[in-house]
UniProtKB/TrEMBL annotation:
Localization annotation: Cell membrane
Annotated Gene Ontology cellular component terms: plasma membrane
Domain VTT: 30-159
UniProt keyword annotations, A-Z: Cell membrane, Membrane, Transmembrane, Transmembrane helix
Protein known as: Alkaline phosphatase
Amino acid sequence: MTEILLELLDKGGYLGIFLLMAAENIFPPIPSEVIMGAAGVLVARGQMTFMTLWIVATAGTVAGNLFWFWLGVRWSEETLKKVIDRWGRWLTFEWDEFLKARDIFRKYGDWIVFLLRFSPILRTIVSLPAGLARMKLWRFVLFTALGSAIWNGILIFGGKAISGLIDRYETLAGYGIVAFVLIGVAIYIYRVMTWEPVAAFENKDD
């Protein structure tokens, strides 16, 4: 399993990494930790260079977040609520999570875009209130890129550091990757099945 994943990433090359990292910030079940960790192993093997991988992965992350930022710029909060009520189930995106990100953004300002890159849930959602607030594009790109660069760098170095262990315990590592992915999928399915629109919560309170 480990070698299959590494071979797929190697064949996809840097373009594949860019697209995967962009998609990871739009569609929840794609785990950046697995992508970057495996890519770090390829760096250790000399099949990719750290600097190119780091830049491409960070660019992909920024591109994915620009999608949400653009929606925030284009749509009103009322429109966003309607969209989240209709499609939030499949994105495992709840309205109260948006409100939390919005309130944090309003309280702390632009810098929170950088800090929330290290939050597993809010790091993408904060792009919406940033767009709604008409945050300057260059500042959004800068803070997103800085936070993403640090996080991606940590993941790449982590994959590179354990590459020897992966080569030595390939079967065990493969089971670990499968388990990690299955846990992520299970969490996604659980959130899809238990997701309720805001109206449902409001009715429960009545």
